[in-house]
Amino acid sequence: MARAGVSTAPLSRLHSLPPRPSLLHNPQPNVLLLRPQQRKAPATTAAALPTAADLPELSLPAAAAAAAALAAAVSLSDPERRRRAQAEAAGGGDKEAVRAYFNSTGFERWRKIYGSATEGVNRVQLDIREGHAQTVAAALSMLRDSPLELAGTTVCDAGCGTGSLAIPLAAEGADVLASDISAAMVSEAQRQASLAQATAPGSTTFRMPRFEVRDLESLEGRYDVVVCLDVLIHYPREEAKAMIRHLASLADKRLLISFAPRTLYFDFLKRVGELFPGPSKATRAYLHAEADIEDALRQAGWRVANRGFISTQFYFAKLFEAVPVASSSS
């Protein structure tokens, strides 16, 4: 099935990332890193919707009936009721549900997605793996293009998962604290970091990250850079905004955050997906409006200096690089 692309109006500066070999037979994912000056609203085209060639031939009345049935099903779906039940089963709210999920079935699922093996990994998981890898690459590109020298820079990787960002930062000499709400994820990240260190004997730049099992709200200290990738999707609007304000209080020079953007199109896709819950799916997926993320940053005294958009067939994310309002760096 052909995938529509995502186009963005040109801005004052465009960062291009080195090409990565695609894991699928689909076109290369779209990764745009953009300077905010003279920013125009991006013109996006629908991605991952079937074309006419992908659908069986239907008469006009049958097609209209099918569309009406889908619309009714979407309007009657109640993902919030499922979320409440999942949270109650975990003994609390969203945070407890996320912790329980990533310490059990979610850990195995996402360990496969974040890994490198292809056996037992389905097409959707491979696509999400590629999307996450592109987000990590985009974050690294932003930091390398900043005035910061990564060697010796203190970094807090909040929600480190299996170490996909913490380990390459450590390889460049950054002093990294990597934390995750899931003890299983932290253990896997430690294992991956040890393997990375063993494959780089004699390296004078690799600094083993410090790993901790922590939720975002309990993080403390001061860091040159705080990074939080693919975490806010697990938390609703007000919780996510509070987390951003807390993360901003820990950072001195840079704050990088990724999130699934809330648009009419992406919200529709999400609601359709929630009609088919299954044991392999995440417990929840919250989309966030860009205005909400920028508002939380502004309240904390930060502004967006760079922004990027990553899109594959089943993965889409906005990436913001923020700096203190008082900073003259861009």
From TrEMBL:
Keyword field contains Cell inner membrane: no
InterPro entries with a match to the protein in the record: Mg_prot_MeTrfase, Mg_prot_MeTrfase_C, SAM-dependent_MTases_sf
CDD domains per the UniProt record, alphabetical: AdoMet_MTases
Parts of the chain that traverse the membrane: none
UniProt cross-references to SUPFAM superfamilies, sorted A to Z: S-adenosyl-L-methionine-dependent methyltransferases
Entry's Gene Ontology BP terms: chlorophyll biosynthetic process; methylation
Composition bias, Low complexity: 10-25
PANTHER family: METHYLTRANSFERASE, UBIQUINONE BIOSYNTHESIS O-METHYLTRANSFERASE, MITOCHONDRIAL
Entry protein name: Putative magnesium-protoporphyrin IX methyltransferase
Organism: Sorghum bicolor
